[in-house]
Amino acid sequence: MEFATRQMWLLTFVLAGVNLISGYSFQYCVADPSSNWTGFRCCENRIVKNLSVTLTSDLPKSAISLLVNFRNMSWMLNNSLAHLPNLQNLRLDENKLSRIDPLAFQNLHQLKSLNLSRNNLSKLSPLVFENLHNLTFLSLSYNKLKEFPDGIFSGVPNLSALHLRENSLKGFSDIVKSVAHLKNLTTLDLCSNQLTSLSHSNASLPRSLNVLYLCNNNLRTLGCKSSFFKFIEVLDLSNNNLLPTEAFQGLNLSHVNSLRLNSTRVKIVEFLNASNIYAGHVDFSGTRLNKNSRITQLCEKLQRKLNTIKKFLLSYNGIKTVRHLNLSHCPEMTGVLDLSHNDLKTIKDLSFLGNQTHITTFIAEHNHLSSLPDSKKDAVQFESLEELSYRYNRILSVDRGAFQQMPNLKSLKLNINNLAFLHQQALKGLRQLQTLRLDNNLLTDLFNVTFEDNVSLQVLNLRNNRISVIFNGTFFNLRNLTTLDLGGNKISYFQPSGFDGLTRLSNLYLDLNNLKKIDLSHQVFKHTLTVLDLSSNNIRFLKDETISPFANLSRLRDLKLSGQRNYGLTILPRTLFRGLRSLESLYLTDNQISHLFPDAFDDLTALRFMTLDNCCVGVTQLQPGVFKNLRNLTRLVLENMGIQNISKGVFGNLTQLRVLQLNHNVMQNIPTDALESLPSLQYLDIRDIPLSCTCRNSLLQDYTVNNPDVQVVHLYALKCQQNKMIHFYNFDTKVCYIDLGKYLFLSTAAAIFLFTVTPLFYVKLYWKIKYSYYVFRSWFGERWNRLRENEENCKYDAFISYNFSDEEWVMRQLLPNLEGNGSGLKLCLHHRDFELGRNIVDNIVAAVYSSRKTVCVVSRSFLQSEWCSLEIQLASYRLFDEHRDVLLLVFLEPVSERQLSSYHRMRKVMLKKTYLQWPGSDGTSPPQAQELFWNQLRRAIKAGSKVETEDNRSEDFAPVSKNVNI
After folding, report:
1. pTM, whole model, 2 decimals?
2. Domain for residue 523, yes or no?
């Protein structure tokens, strides 16, 4: 029924040509994937009192089918569903509706089916079904309706089925008046009301009506016109306990082809005498035919009226024995004989049927039969009998030859008995048998001769017995068998040739047994088997097996391995599914798998559905690529697996996946890129996951709320893990984002500014920037404070800064005069005192700040050296920034103003201080001038470094040559 409903929805959708969006997220509803996204279920476990437009306002106009089922919903407001004009199927059953506003179904012009059954409706507005011109099915069963207002069905002219079962309706005349204009009405169900009579006014039932159910009322008389049932074909008057035979006097029942009168006061023989109904259309069940004399009398009556009878239904008559049941007086039976729901205890054989050898179906279900004994060898043969059913009895044994009277039997049902003994020859001779039901019995053994003659058997059901072993050759002759159900037994193993002969087997059910291992790869049905159910066995793998037990099942489409006992599958070998390239459905639920190998599912390239619900123990880590070859997978169930995190690599190749169920897992965040790697995703279930409402899930929130293609199940009911008062879909994510426009503008402006001023800074402030950089680096390396200690702790008296071309003067003149001759000065020279392996700039900085003074030997070559320039800049910055007289300038030769123009700091020093010039540079100075030069330089190096004011300079710095003002 469910499948047919889905197909109807799909067909309706195609015919309507409605353009749909793939999926959505809804406040209270869920789109059903099986209905091609046109069907919706609004049945969340919430307390909702009123059905208003707000509950379904977010559903698309394309909705075709809708089921609404909320707890305590008692009122349906006007225009509740007016925004769904394409709705065709509406179910509001099993709520607590007690009030429906007059315009509740306004604008539902396309509605075809409306189910309001099982509510608390006691009164309806006359306008409630107004303008539902396309409505064909309406159910108001199981409510509290007592009457209908005038014209209530005037808005549903195309109604064909009206169900009013189980209400409190009393006035049949009002009912007839309400439905008289329904020209297309074919079915009217009024069972289980309080009708006492069918008398009515001038109105009459529609001529289209052919099915009328009036069972279980209080009818004492019919009281209707003779032509009232003129067009009725199916009439049910059963369970009207006070309805007498006289009620049918003069009624025209000629068109009735099915009449039920069980549990009434009608005397069936008198009724047949007084009525013009065709006797073969009467159901004689429950008409008190509990005595053989009454059955004989009935048969004699039928014999006079009929030549043959196709259905002779005698259930619910309290018949206790067939010993004296003589049906020879009945017309020839060419169809069904039904003795179900009686008190029969023994049917030795079918000899009680006498000459009724042409029946095709014999049913004796729901009796008290305890055995089926051997029939006599000379017993009458019932060669026309094709169906025999003894279901729901207490049969303990079936003897040899119990069915030898019926050699052409095609269907035999012995299920739901206490059958413990089935003789090896019980089924002998049944060569035409196609369906055999032996399920729900107590059978323990099957022998290789049990089914020896059943060569035409196609379906064999042995479910829920106590079979423990399948012996060799048991099914050897069943070469036409397509379905074998051995589920629910105690089978622990089958012998090597146990399944030999099953060359056409397609469906094999071995679930709920005690199998510990399975190997079907070499069975004869390896190329025909399509369905294999191994659920709830004891199958376990203690190691990573190398050979697959399903390797040669090339056509297998459906495999179930769920719920292995006692601990479930703990190891899933990487080769378990090798060769199953046709498999479409795989069930692994309720196991205890500890690890999934990345290549476990590699061969399942045709798989469309897989469920791993509750399949793992503890926290599961899904390896990237574990589903890499499942390109045809459309539905994946990963519920309650203990998954802690998921990466993009897990779902990388699932390009066809439409439905993903992740609910009841333990991940706190779901990476959005993992979901975005599923281009066909339409349905996502993440309920009952402890999602954190933090910035880690800000992208997930945006994905679930703003994605028009993916429906997130009950998104608006998802709560934050940290605070159940906050919902996931609207937790504050503002702190997780920056204003990109603002920051892009600022960064662009800053970049343009830097590119503009950098050349200027490079020209004007190059050395200062470089100096600041190295000073900062020294400070960062915790050396700065040590370098700036008091000058008494300095390592050197002076650092000599000079160019390589002036090294001869430094070594021949400066070094002997400052360190020799008892001067006691300690100089720092780069070629002698710099630390090996250290950065040269770090050496220069350390030398400047480890010396009390810096002596710059200035020459034209000095001014052209980058490193000399850095040394003098560092010394001058120390002079001006620390206010220490630490810089001494010694000019070896005259220097022009143009050559000094780029040394702003040097010019500044020369304007404020006296500098020394080597007297031997021009050859005109007296000899004692060099001695004075060295004395002055030694005194300057030994002098204190505190900077004095210009007016109080020490006379010790008297120049040896004139100031050179630049």
Report:
1. 0.75
2. no
